[in-house]
Every structure is written in structure tokens, then in C-alpha cells.
Design brief:
The radius of gyration is 38 Å and the shape is rod-shaped. The chain is mainly alpha-helical. The longest helix is centred in the C-terminal third of the chain and has 69 residues, at 61-129. The protein is built from three helices and no strands. It has one domain (3-45, 58-129).
Amino acid sequence: MHCSDASTHSLHKAIIVPLLFKPAIRRSWPLYQEAAIMSVSAAAQAEPAPKRAHEPPRPTALEEVLLTALRDSRRNLIMLEEGKKELEAAVGREQMQFERLQFAYKKATRDAAYARTMEMLLERERAKHAVPN
């Protein structure tokens, strides 16, 4: 095993294998394998062409896979942050609803106690002024 083979193998074990458990990576893994095979076979067949100064270097297949995963992760973070904001707003609305219902319940309880007290006082007054038989 050459030095580059050993480093490729350790890269594969350390980075690529754990990434395969992510759905976005699993979807693009066949593309990565195909691009890697084509890249190796093209490099073996052709002599390296001189790089032009104005062209940026092409990303490797691994870079493309990781960039796809990075974009997916960023999109997921944005969606989760939006969901978090919506959830916090819903919690605030429900807290307000709870406080209003609690106020209404306490008021209804006080009103019922007041009505019972007034009815009891009215019964006492009637009993005082009632004519015995």
C-alpha cells in the first residue's frame, strides 16, 4: 500500500464512512464513486495538462459531496430556526390563553360565591319577616 493509498484509506474510514449515515450523503454517494473512478482512470490515461491561470481548480468528488451535505445542513438549520420561532410564538399565545382562562375561572368562582352569599342573606331576611303559623 502506497503512502497515498494509506492516507486515502484512513480518510475513507474517518470521514466518508460516518458521512454515509446521513441521507443527503447516501443519495449522492453513487455520484461520488463514479466521479472518483473516472478521475482516477482519466489521471492514469492522460498526462497532466498545464493549469491555466484564469480557471479556478475543479472541486474533487469528495468536496462536491461535502458541499452538498453542507448545503443540506444549512437548509435544515434555517427550517428548524423558522420552526423554533413559530413554536415560541405558539407557546406565547397559549400562555396568554391560559392566563385569560385562569382569570375567567377565578372571576366565575368569586361571582358564584357572591351569589350564594346573597341568596343566604336573602333567605335569612325572609325567615325574619316570615309570619309563623
